[in-house]
């Protein structure tokens, strides 16, 4: 069955520290991969996406993610976290070449300590 | 350029009632998908509309139905509401594949439905 796993439910980092949020997927076909961010009570904002090509992708707000096919992972990173990055982060996978549905992980809540 | 818009923002209903949620896609987008996000969970796919037809459906009962209009806007209807239907309902739109859509979905702010 297709699935996305985000192993960390809640992560707390200090402002200025580096961040890595983990995402593992199980998908039979070639995937499209996405990271979204959701602030409390809000919709989802796309941070970055991977379709093909360079496995290190850059997104908005200084985020990047690396696709590792051998590990079925698409981890999100940021070198220096800002207090405004506190939010919930969702990894999602979609089918390559299709407009079908996205499958989401359960999310990782990020808290930032001053 | 307006993004995806949804109405209403919040809604309170009682068990057994029916509800209609509305979504206007981003300009140029012709495909609309609906997701349900329960508290503390990731969004779950309900169904997707393209060319005014339901193209894909997730694991949701027939109480959940939808419609897409010629201007690509969409409605989600839920009949016989249950307490468990309380959630944030998200609408997402995407470009046609032939226009390079690649399933990049843009989400609206959601409608918060509370069933009492």
Provide an overview of this structure.
The complex is a heterodimer of chains A (114) and B (116). With 114 residues, chain A is mainly beta. Chain A contains no helices and twelve strands. Chain A is globular and about 40 Å long. The model of chain A has no long low-confidence stretch (mean pLDDT 91). Chain B is an all-beta fold and 116 residues long. Chain B has strands at residues 5-7, 10-13, 19-24, 31-37, 44-50, 53-57, 64-68, 74-78, 87-94, 106-107, 111-115. In chain B, the strands form two sheets. In chain B, strands 2, 4, 5, 6, 9, 10 and 11 form a seven-stranded mixed sheet that branches. A four-stranded antiparallel sheet of chain B has the order 1-3-8-7, with no helix packed on it. The radius of gyration of chain B is 14 Å and the shape is globular. The interface between A and B is medium-sized, with 27 and 31 residues.
Number of strands of chain A: 12
Query: Can you count the helices of chain B?
Result: 0
Radius of gyration of chain B: 14 Å
Distance between the termini of chain A: 41 Å
Give helix % range of chain B: under 10%
Query: Could you estimate the helical fraction of the residues of chain A in percent?
Result: under 10%
- Unreliable spans of chain A are none
Query: Overall pLDDT of chain A, averaged?
Result: 91
| Morphology of chain B | globular
Any idea what the shape of chain A is? Answer: globular
Count of DSSP H/I helices of chain A: 0
Structural class of chain B: mainly beta
**Low-confidence segments of chain B, ≥5 residues, pLDDT <50?**
none
Percent of sequence in beta strands of chain B: over 45%
Average pLDDT value of chain B? 92
Write down the secondary-structure element order of chain B: EEEEEEEEEEE
- Any idea what the radius of gyration of chain A is? 14 Å
String of helices and strands of chain A: EEEEEEEEEEEE
- Oligomeric status of the shown chains? heterodimer
Tally of DSSP β-strands of chain B? 11
